Amino acid sequence: MRILVTNDDGITSPGLLTLVKYLKSVGTVSVLAPDRNWSASGHVKTLNRPLRVNAETLADGTPALSCDGAPSDCVALAALGLIKEKIDLVVSGINPYPNLGNDMTYSGTVTAAMEGAIWGIPSIAMSLDGSGNINHLDFSGAAATACRISKQVYEHGLPVKTLLNVNVPNLPIDQIQGFQVTRLGLRVYQDELVRREDPQGRPYYWIGGKPPTGIAEDSTDFGALAAGYVSITPIHMDMTAHHLREAVSTWVW
Ligand code: MN
What pTM was estimated for this model as a whole? Predict the structure, then answer.
């Protein structure tokens, strides 16, 4: 199987390198990733400027391509023919922070996999729950998990417009409790408006505050991670609120 690996932290990120090393054991890997960090860039389609692609070499000698576009641009370019061979699977990651609940549409990692789903390619987003211990990231468990999930997805396929969002505890594979297939949980953002002044006295703003937390409810992505399990959430690109159609139809139109 031909696997396209991309990432939202950039071509030099350790999560990408570990993912590529491991996925070589299950398929032929092509790498096309952004040339810089696009974390929390959301789902991007760059239309108003050219996209440049450069040949790169990863730290282990693997040939790769970098692009000055977003992660989702990388997947679109590959699907449009920049990668000549047919792509059987897109794997995006491994992000050093988890992507849970409402993170879905902010995440460069997840939206790269969404782009794969739009192109009809089975796609997986891989994130590590490094938030509690960002100075001691162990990508090996998440990379081994990516291999296992890639084989399953290749065997079973995924329906159109769907992808798998995977979050893995920051542990070696033999210390992970197992797998839970989950639903999106409730992310709790602790964002605060931070107002400062530039040297000319004009105000500027940051979205500041503490990192997000979440509700560790059973059967959710956050709950699975909190209990030491790999969380696998099937995601659907159809964002229609079907349960609201009838009620909205009764309004005065
Ligand atoms: Mn990232």
Answer: 0.96
